[in-house]
Task: inverse folding
């Protein structure tokens, strides 16, 4: 790593201090919560307590129903992510390259972007029923919209001067696409893929939480309705951890792939 | 036969719109093989437009550009290769890939492009920097890469649009003396736009002075002193006389432009 990088990014010591502060805060919240539950200020019936949640996490880790649900959610997420992101990248690239198609259809995507997408949930249930498909469809919808918008923005950021060089040296469209447009738009495309991961997951889980009868989301709903708050919270915690882990893995991969930037 | 001829060239932007603008007006110019021609003129007078038309990036509204007698209709980098003012290196490609990119675009195989890139990088004095990314290079070094990218096509003509415009005085001068050797050895004809009087004289076999927009050729001056020249050339009487003459010419054209702009805005009011 070059010295300029070190100068621009925050010093290691600051990053470490921030991590400690964050950990201390989370720990303080957990301790406070535990104490309040212990002395009865917080009703354990509705809010559980950290020790119970961690215990529940241990049980659920070997519980076949929970593991099955996790598998269902994972499969639905991967499907939704793959379809939504793939379609979004292709659509975004087409919009980025073709003025007519962009003017014709991009406004529709923008409308989908601004309306609360949950209004489509009942429709999707009517279409696909209460099974896994509705959840996947909702994840696809969310991922597609966000990926498309980001990829279009990425292509817009490719500077005119790079196209000029291509033209001056007689580049054919495929060469121009592979060597100039794709790498030039990479920041936007990577941002798009991350939005695809996040929104694919959010879409699948929301659908499972509110309408479907499968996956982790459904299980959280079930536990909540049965006042098994510790179980519900344990699942929520596990999902949050998974998302955080995926996010940090992704940002590592991304900075490796765009290491020419800094 | 001349290498390149510009014949009664007129270029307009936005033809048949209310923003129609006459950028170049009835320009005649010839470039001989191996010749170094500099173009100087007031800002906005149509220098870049002329250069881009010579290289096939812009189509003439009227008149013609011929290379080896054949009308130029689109860029052909093996005839005339561009070096842009802002380097225009691809930040996501290594220096070596950048140097080979012109050839790649022109249809050469990856192997051929890379081996030429290595040769040209060595030629411009950057052989140890091939693995780096452009951001790690100074402006002067980046411009050398852009020149290597153009030279890799072994073009008969280099078209350079203010190639040193973004560099400081010292870097310009060093790069300048280096490049006069490099380009002398490579044997290309060069057309170079510059805003620097010193550069315009120091480099040129011939200086083309353009008038304010719409750009016409106001004067062509031949500089007989053989190239490559030593820096001492800049202290000779011939150089100083030329410098004073060019300075006065540009003043006149600049004043013309200012007066015309003033009267046209007065007319609008
Ligand atoms: N793509 C374009 N569309 C419309 N007008 C343009 C375009 N490019 C240039 N012009 C106009 O044409 C005129 C000549 O521009 P050109 O860039 O050729 O000038 P120049 O001599 O290179 O100026 P400079 O010294 O500032 O680089 C200017 O008035 C400019 O505003
Ligand atoms: Mg210009």
Result:
């Amino acid at each position: 790593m070059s010295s300029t990088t070190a100068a621009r990014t925050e010093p290691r010591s600051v990053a470490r201090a921030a991590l400690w502060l964050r950990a201390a805060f989370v720990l303080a919240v957990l301790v406070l919560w535990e104490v309040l539950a212990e002395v009865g200020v917080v009703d354990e019936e509705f809010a559980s307590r950290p020790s119970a949640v961690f215990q529940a996490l241990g049980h659920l880790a070997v519980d076949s129903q929970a593991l099955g649900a996790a598998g269902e959610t994972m499969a639905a997420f991967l499907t939704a992510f793959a379809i939504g992101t793939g379609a979004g990248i292709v659509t975004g690239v087409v919009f980025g390259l073709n003025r007519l198609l962009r003017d014709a259809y991009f406004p529709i995507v923008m409308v989908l972007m601004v309306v609360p997408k949950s209004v489509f949930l009942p429709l999707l249930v009517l279409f696909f029923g209460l099974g896994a498909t509705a959840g996947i469809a909702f994840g696809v919808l969310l991922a597609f919209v966000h990926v498309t918008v980001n990829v279009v923005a990425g292509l817009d950021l490719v500077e005119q001067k790079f196209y000029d060089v291509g033209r001056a040296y007689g580049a054919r469209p495929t060469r121009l696409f592979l060597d100039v447009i794709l790498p030039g738009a990479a920041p936007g495309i990577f941002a798009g893929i991350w939005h695809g991961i996040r929104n694919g997951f959010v879409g699948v889980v929301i659908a499972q939480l509110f309408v479907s009868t499968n996956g982790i989301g459904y299980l959280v709903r079930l536990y909540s309705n049965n006042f098994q708050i510790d179980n519900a919270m344990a699942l929520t915690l596990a999902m949050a951890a998974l998302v955080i882990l995926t996010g940090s893995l992704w940002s590592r991969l991304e900075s490796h792939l765009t290491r020419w930037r800094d | 036969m001349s290498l390149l001829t510009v014949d009664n060239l007129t270029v307009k932007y936005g033809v048949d719109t209310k923003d129609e603008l006459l950028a170049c007006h009835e320009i005649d110019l010839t470039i001989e093989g191996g010749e170094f021609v500099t173009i100087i003129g007031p800002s906005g007078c149509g220098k870049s437009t002329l250069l881009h038309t010579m290289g096939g990036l812009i189509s003439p509204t009227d008149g013609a550009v011929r290379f080896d007698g054949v009308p130029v209709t689109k860029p052909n980098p093996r005839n005339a290769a561009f070096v842009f003012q802002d380097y225009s290196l691809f930040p996501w490609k290594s220096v070596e890939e950048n140097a080979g990119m012109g050839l790649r675009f022109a249809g050469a195989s990856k192997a051929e492009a890379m081996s030429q890139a290595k040769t040209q990088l060595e030629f411009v004095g950057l052989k140890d920097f091939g693995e780096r990314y452009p951001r790690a290079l100074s402006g002067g070094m980046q411009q050398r890469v852009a020149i290597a990218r153009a030279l890799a096509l072994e073009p008969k003509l280099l078209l350079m649009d203010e190639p040193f415009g973004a560099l400081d005085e010292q870097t310009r001068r060093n790069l300048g003396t280096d490049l006069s050797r490099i380009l002398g050895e490579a044997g290309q004809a060069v057309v170079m736009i510059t805003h620097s009087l010193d550069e315009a004289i120091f480099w040129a076999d011939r200086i083309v002075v353009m008038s304010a927009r719409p750009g016409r050729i106001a004067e062509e001056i031949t500089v007989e002193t053989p190239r490559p020249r030593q820096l001492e050339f800049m202290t000779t009487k011939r150089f100083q006389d030329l410098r004073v003459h060019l300075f006065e010419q540009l003043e006149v054209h600049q004043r013309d432009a200012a007066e015309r702009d003033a009267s046209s805005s007065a007319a609008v009011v």
In short: Residues B 13-14, 21, 23, 41, 43-49, 213 surround adenosine-5'-triphosphate (ligand 1) (CB under 6 Å). Residues 30-61+155-268 of chain B form a domain with the Rossmann fold fold (CATH 3.40.50.300).
